[in-house]
Structure formats: structure tokens, C-alpha cells
Amino acid sequence: MLRFILRRLLQMVLAFFGTTLIVYALMFAGQGDPIQALAGERPVTAAQRAYLTEKFHLDATGVGGFFYRYFDYLKNLLQGDLGQSLTGRQIGDILAAAWPVTVKLALIAMAVTIVFGVTAGVIAGIRRAGIFDNATLVLTLLVLGIPTIVLAPLAQYLLGVRWQLFPPTAGADPDLYALLLPGIVLGSLSLATALRLTRTSVAENLRADYVRTARSKGLVKRRIVGVHVLRNSLIPVVTFLGVELGNLMSGAIITEGVFNIPGVGFNLFRGIRTEDGPLVVGIVSVLVVVYLVSNLVVDVLYAVLDPRIRYE
Amino acid sequence: MSQPAVQPVPASPTPEGGHLLEVRDLHVEFRTGEGVAKVINGVSYHLDAGETLAVLGESGSGKSVTAQAIMGILDTPPAHVRAGQIRYRGRDLLGQSEEQRRQVRGKEIAMIFQDALSALNPVFPVGWQVGETLRQREGMSRADARARTVELMDLVRIPAAASRLGDYPHQFSGGMRQRVMIAMALALNPKVLIADEPTTALDVTVQAQIMDLLADLRRDLDMAMILITHDLGVVAGVADRIAVMYAGRIVEHADVRSLYRAPAHPYTKGLLESIPRLDVRGQALSTIKGLPPNLMRIPSGCPFHPRCPYVQQVCVDVVPHDLVLGDGRTSACHFAQEVHDDSAR
């Protein structure tokens, strides 16, 4: 187990360097004059240009220069310094403000997914081809078929504006109630997927040979389903939920945009729109780490849940 | 060899009571989208205390389905028990409630399966799985169940049993896994053990070990055993009687000796002749021509007639009854006596 984790950690290091390099290259490759971009529309004096050129090591050109600056960036990053955005704010500060909001939103979405998606999936799997199964099939296909860019404004209009059950937008420093509707909208997609996945997994495991064995041991049905089937069925579901939590933690650009929630996705979107290179690269670098860590957690969890892959 | 006169008898010739377990005129069909497959068509057999009955037949002959019907673990739907009785100690199990039948499972009649790797739950340690039966059915404490589990695993000759309680099924060899299955089936001291092709997934040397173990356990624990197999070689040393199944029927029923000496059904004869022998050299191995019947369209008359070397017009038209050939052996063949005499020659 320890070797398994160590090997995954080594792979994480490689993945981290690879992804940050690509993001860094993509963001700055097409850029003509970074100093002018930093200054915006204002003129740049020769003295300022000379100072900034030296500060950012822009005098080194070509591939060598690119790597020089990339390693500069990495060095700062590893020291916890994400640098400044073009607006002059510390990127670390921006993220520190945005992340708690995104985490709250992610947890609401996750709770919705688990409570409704997994539960309904188990019921649909047990009563395969029944009314409940067919009804959830239609509903989940509907939800999966509607893109968030349609679903989010629709929910906002109907539930927020028309019937006024929820606040239509969140605004700065939102409370849990304000995040509830966006959380449900965000969670509905993973809910639908989790439901389908759980349903299939339960239905499949109910036909497994070990269920026949459990029955021939004379166990009650509740125990066969609740212990034997569920424990096996939830392996792929937990894996999916882990990956999904990683996704949710990295912010939801559309949902956060529609409901005006100042989370990570919202800031990332603003960075992209205003061509704020340092902000985008800074956020994405942290997202890469979040992703890698959540994937590691999923892998470890998977090994814990399924003894067959523990000693590969 | 005596030459008894052939006489037709009713489908279930056994007398009332007496038998530990008795299947009477069982009919099971599978109702699927493509149609109805008649999987069991009037199977009758019985098992007395302390004996071993081998049920022999190729895949799809209905031997496992009969066993699962006895256990009450058929998937219904698609399976449907259309008619018949399964009497255990005189009571018809088919008339009992699910709860009553659950009580019988494991405690009175236990079953082990072909592929122990898939029959054991992959995510629980084997000790937990054996102990679960004891905790759930007998209300044993964890510690008691654990101690008894070690006893059971010793009983089935798993080396260093106590140290292997926490291992998972995939960490065992095929033979050891089947021993775990056996330990689990024995947990509640059943009176009947149904072994559904217990050695099919194992290699030959391990097969022999498992068969020896089952025979020893059956004797030591005074159980009766139904041994389901398609392998005539497995049967010889262990079984007292053999019931041969074809297309959901018992086609021949005899004690082991007489059946091996002189089969009285062309199908059994074909099976015996298709075993490779060391003492017959330079001859092509004989086989049974054709394929097992499609259970959605079972041939008219005798279901074996399209593959039978003895076939006559009567075989196509009339379903053969069980013919008694003496010593309680029966054969569902119009020409049972001829086949028997041919074989005895």
C-alpha cells in the first residue's frame, strides 16, 4: 500500500511539471509584448521597460528564455508565491477569498448527488425495469441532455425570479442559503451520472455468483443487498464521486457565472476574458494540484474498497 | 448378469415417505423475451441419509437448475417452477414461505458451486464470509464465530487456517478457495450437501484432492450428498447411485457399478464410450454426434432421438417412460433392454 502511494506521488510530480509547463507555454506563447500588456493602454517609459525586462528576465529570448522564466515561475510557485495578477492583486489573496465559496458550493452539490443520486440509483437497480427505474431513466436523460448553460439560467429564472424560492444571485460573500440553488443545479449533472452508474452497478452485482452463495447461506434479503451487493456496487460509484469532487472543487465556470458567485471558476473566467495571463496560470497551477491530490485520494480509496487491486 | 423383464412404471416410482430428500416430477421453465425454455421436464430423484447421488449430464441438461430449485435460489423471473414437489423430510419445500425456505438453506441443505472465485464475495476476507453464516444464522459472537471458523477451515484441511482468516478470495489458490466454499457450506452442519460441479474449475490433481475431501467429510459428518458433474471419471469413486440427465429429464438411473458395467440408455453408453481409455489403442475416440437440443424446441418423442444410434420410428413419435431393469435401475429408452444387452456384451 505504501509503495502504491509512493509510486503515485512520483507520478504526480511528473504530471505537475508537465501540466504547468503546457499551461505556461499556452498562455504566454501567443503574447507579443508582455510589458505593454501589463501596462494596458498607458505608455511605458524606457526606464520602466528596462526595469521590468530585468525583473521578469525578458532579456533572455527563444526556448532558453522561456524555460528560464518557467523555472522562475516554478521556483516562486513552490515557495507558495503565485505572483500578481495584472490588476496588481496578489493571486494568492484572490484564491484565498474565492476557494471557500467554491468548496461550499461543491459540498452542497456533492451532498445532493450522494443523497438523491446514489439512493435513487440503488432503488432503481434493485427494482430494475420497474416504474421507478424507468421514471428515473427518463429524468436523468433529460438532465444529462440539457447543458448547464441552459439549466442554470432556467432554474435561476423559475425558482429565483418567478417563484422567488431562492435568491436569484449570490453576490459577494454568499451564505449557504444563497448557494443552495446553484449547488443543486451544479449537482444535478453529477447526480444524473451517479444515479445511472449506481443503478447499473447494483443491477449487475445482483446477478453475481456471490449473491447466489449469500442466498444459499440463508441470509435475509436485506443483508444480501445491504452488505454484499452494496459494498461491491459502490466501488465504481465512489471512484466517480471522488473524481467529481475534484471537478467541483476546481470551480464551475458557468454556474458561478450565472449566479454571480465569486468562486474559483468565476475568477478563472474573468482572468481568461481580460487576458490576465498570470491570474489564469496561477489559478490553473493550483487546480492542477487539486486535481492530482483528488485523483490520488480516489486511487487510494479504490485500493481500500477493492482488495483485488491492493497488491498489484 | 440377470436379465429382468422390462416393465413400464409410473413417472415417480418411489414409495411414500422414507427418503431424506425427494424431487418429484419437477417442471421448471425459463420465460424470456424469445420464448419459453423448458429446462426441467419431469425430473424425479431421491436421496437417502448418508448416501451420495451423482447427477450427470452435459451443460444445459438441467442438473444445476434442479439443484437450485431444491435450494430455492433460482432467479424468478425468468425461472418458473411449473409443477412438481421437492420433499425434504416429508414436507414439500415448494409449498413453504420464503422465510421457511431460508431457514432450510445452509442449515438443512447447503450448496457449493463450480467457480469458487466468483462464488465468494471478492471484497470481504474469507474468515468474515465463513463467520457471517455463524453470526447471522446462529447469533454467535464475533469471537465464537472466529473460533468456529478456524475449526471449519482446519476441517477442510486449509493449512495454517488461523493465519488466513484475513485473506481475500483472490489470495487463495483454486483448490484452497473451493475448500473455503466447503467450510462455509458446512458451517451449520447441514444434512444434505449439494456440490454443483465442485471440481470443474480445478486442475486434475487438485480435483482428486477435493473429491477425496468431500467423500471424507460426507462420511465423517454423516451427510447425504448430491454431486452434480459432467465428468464420469469424478463420479466413479465417490457416488453410490447415478442419475443421468438429458434435456431436463432423468434418462437413466442406476447404482454406480451396474451403470458402469452396462449402461441401459444410448446417451449414457455414448458418454462412457467417449472417455479416453489407456487399454484401447489405435482407435479413434467415439463421440456422441450432434448437439444438445435447443430447450425452446425440444425434439418430439424421445429428446435424444436425433443423436441416437438406436433410433426407430417409435422414438420420434412416443416419449419413452422409465423402464425398470431390476435392481431399481431405470432407463427412459424404448430399447433399454437392447442397449443394456449390447453394453453388457
Structure overview:
The complex is a heterodimer of chains A (312) and B (345). Chain A has 312 residues and is mainly alpha-helical. Chain A contains 13 helices and no strands. The N and C termini of chain A lie close together (9 Å). Chain B has 345 residues and is of the alpha/beta class. Chain B has a domain of 134 residues: P-loop containing nucleotide triphosphate hydrolases (Rossmann fold). Helix content of chain B is 32%, strand content 22%. In chain B, the strands form two sheets. In chain B, strands 1-12-13-11-10-4-9-8-7 form a nine-stranded mixed sheet, sandwiched between helices. In chain B, strands 3-2-5-6 form a four-stranded antiparallel sheet, with helices on one face. In chain B, α4 packs parallel to α6, α5 crosses α6 and α6 packs parallel to α7. The radius of gyration of chain B is 21 Å and the shape is globular. Classes of the chains: A mainly alpha (312), B alpha/beta (345). Chains A and B meet through α9 and α10 of A and α2, α4 and α6 of B.
Strand portion of chain A: under 5%
Number of domains of chain A: 1
Query: What is the CATH topology of the domain at 106-239 in chain B?
Result: Rossmann fold
User: Beta-strand percentage of chain B?
Assistant: 15-25%
Largest sheet of chain B, described in full?
A: 9 strands, mixed
Most extensive contact: A-B, 22 and 32 residues
Key phrases:
heterodimer; A: 312 residues; mainly alpha; MetI-like fold; B: 345 residues; alpha/beta; Rossmann fold; 9-stranded mixed sheet; 4-stranded antiparallel sheet; 12 helices; disordered N terminus
List the helices and strands and how they pair.
The complex is a heterodimer of chains A (312) and B (345).
Chain A: H1 2-29, H2 34-39, H3 46-55, H4 62-78, H5 91-126, H6 131-145, H7 148-162, H8 176-206, H9 209-216, H10 221-249, H11 253-258, H12 264-273, H13 277-305
Chain B: E1 7-8, E2 21-32, E3 35-47, E4 52-56, H1 63-71, E5 79-88, E6 91-92, H2 98-104, E7 109-112, H3 116-119, H4 126-138, H5 142-155, H6 174-186, E8 192-196, H7 204-220, E9 224-229, H8 232-236, E10 241-246, E11 249-255, H9 256-261, H10 266-273, H11 313-317, E12 323-324, E13 330-331, H12 336-344
Helix pairs in contact in B: 4-5, 4-6, 5-6, 6-7
